[in-house]
Amino acid sequence: MIEPRIANAFVQANTVKGNRYLDDAGKIMNEWDDSFPEKQVGLEGLHMRNSDKALREMRVSTSTIWLAFFEPDTLQLVLDQSSNVIQKVAEIIEVEKFSRVGVRTQYVYPVGDVPKAVASLAKRIVGTYVESLVDDKSKWHALEVATDVVKENARVKLIITFVTRSQQKGNISKLPPHGVMFDIDVLTKPDESIDASRLKGFLRHAGTEVAVVLDRIAPGIMEGLG
Asked: For the chain, where are the alpha helices, taking DSSP H only?
């Protein structure tokens, strides 16, 4: 089976008592001044961006530390960078606990014949052939499968849908023109905060949960769709 590519990845940590951001936004900007040429800062939050790097965006506010990656080479790169950046921001604004941490990854498997793949997946999941999904390209995205499971150490949400790569001027992408996207969201359990010192361990566990989806679930769904 063809290996998927990571289209996007997002890591978010909701802070507990993160109000020191209001005093230390400048320190955060200085820490990553060379990494993000585009910056916007205000009471509502700090937004930094670099259109040329895998770590595309970084947002910090009194309640949230949020990172966005665009077509990173590996998930490990995402987890390692996120651990380093979030822990450093937490040190600067003196945050010791997160009310929630989430890792969202979007993997795309290429498909050549989209109508055929849509029909095949519809039969497999719905048990019937949905003619309109094949005849009307605008309805490709209508075929969506979602699941939400609370496990022992995390909550895992999975959405499977068809996607078409957007054509943006100057956007050089390695993603296929059409594909099936596995949108995997791994979160800390509801109403369960974690200490900042446990962040790295949770991110490592999130990587394991993503691997379970890609190694055990995706092959069965993608069989015959490419």
From this structure: 21-31, 75-92, 114-126, 131-135, 199-212, 218-222
pLDDT, tens digit, 9 for 90 and up, residues 70-82:
999 999 999 999 9
CA atoms within 13 A on the CB side of 27: 12
Per the model's pLDDT, the better-predicted residue between 50 and 120 turns out to be: 50
pTM summary value: 0.89
Residue whose C-alpha is closest to residue 96's, from 193, 192, 168, 5 = 193
Going by pLDDT thresholds of 50, 70 and 90, the confidence category of residue 171 is low
What is each CA distance from 224 to 7, 118, 124, 141, 144, in whole angstroms? 22, 11, 11, 19, 18
At 167, is the pLDDT very low, low, confident or very high (cuts 50, 70, 90)? Answer: low
Nearest to 153 by CA among 83, 101, 203, 205: 205
> In DSSP terms, which residues pair with 22 in a beta bridge?
none
Closest CA to 156 of 184, 130, 136: 184
Whether 210 contacts 75, CB under 8 Å: yes
